[in-house]
Specification:
Layout (H helix, E strand, L loop, with lengths): L34 E4 L2 E4 L6 E5 L5 E4 L7 H10 L7 E6 L4 H4 L2 H8 L2 E5 L3 H5 L11 H16 L12 E3 L4 E2 L6 E5 L8 E5 L4 E3 L4 E3 L5 E3 L6 H12 L6 E3 L10 H7 L8
Parallel strand pairs: 4-5, 5-6, 6-7, 11-14
Antiparallel strand pairs: 1-2, 2-3, 3-4, 8-9, 9-10, 10-11, 12-13
Length: 273
């Protein structure tokens, strides 16, 4: 599981004030049409784990992540609002194996016939053929994880259904049927097979949970990492990418512009301590 979008890490040894963790998977308030972050990319917000829809070069769509179990109806409504029938969803790209990212993939595949793509090292966890490693939690992260879990339980989140991964993604792969070739970056640390997607010409980065945004807009290291040092190294790698202007984060508000400066000012080494 991952952090609520309403949380931000403290940079001291003290635990952060208890954040308000919204229940999931209740439908968030949203306009009839999803917010278009940049041309051809739409943000579908959820209390825990956002989804992004991307128009493909053939007129179909890809979904980046799928929210917690039970989120598929809202995702399909968002797809319809931007002109897509269910069978127009061609791809589901899962940035990593946590429940708030792969949670509705099986339901979406059943409704749409979309192919599932995910990082090779996380594919066994998504398929359910291996047990994903637990996170190595700091004290503030332990408190936050308990709140997130309690919120999801209180909301009656359905059980997780695993799903077949059709294409295992590796460092250096490209998704060529996107509006521009999307570069796959292996960014381990949050999970062993976490991936990010970089659209260099558009200046867009889908960060996965390596990077999040706090309620004040500050860019932070994502919590709940299996290897904190590795996650920080992956964060710094993403922060050094040239020309990134827009961050599509799974938690917090997407950053439409100014990402390069925000990433330079980030302090991942002290987040969640």
């Amino acid at each position: 599981m991952d952090a609520s979008p309403d949380t931000t890490p403290t940079t001291t040894a003290a635990a952060p004030d208890a954040p308000s963790v919204p229940a999931a998977p209740d439908r968030p308030d949203r306009p009839d049409r999803p917010d278009e972050i940049v041309p051809g990319i739409w943000h579908v917000p959820f209390p825990v784990g956002h989804v992004y829809l991307v128009r493909l070069s053939d007129g179909g769509f890809a979904a980046v992540d799928t929210g917690v179990p039970g989120s598929a109806p809202v995702i399909l409504e968002a797809l319809a609002a931007i002109g897509g029938r269910p069978d127009a969803l061609r791809q589901i790209v899962i940035t990593h194996s946590h429940i708030d990212h792969m949670g509705s993939a099986a339901d979406l595949v059943a409704a749409t016939g979309a192919r599932v793509l995910a990082g090779a090292a996380d594919a066994p966890y998504i398929r359910g053929t291996a047990t994903e490693p637990p996170p190595d939690l700091t004290s503030p992260e332990q408190a936050l994880l308990q709140q997130v879990a309690e919120g999801m339980a209180a909301a009656g989140t359905p059980p997780l259904r695993h799903v077949q991964v059709d294409t295992e993604l590796h460092e250096g792969d490209t998704l060529d049927d996107w509006p521009e070739p999307a570069r796959v970056l292996h960014v381990p640390g949050h999970t062993p097979g976490s991936i990010a997607l970089h659209l260099p010409a558009a200046g867009v980065l889908f960060t996965g949970d390596n990077i999040g945004a706090g309620p004040d807009g500050r860019i932070v290291l994502g919590p709940f990492n299996t290897d904190r040092d590795q996650a920080i190294a992956s964060f710094r790698r993403l922060a050094a990418l040239p020309g990134v202007d827009t961050l599509c984060v799974p938690h917090g508000t997407p950053l439409r512009t100014g990402a390069a400066r925000a990433l330079r000012e980030a302090t991942p080494d002290t987040d969640w301590l």
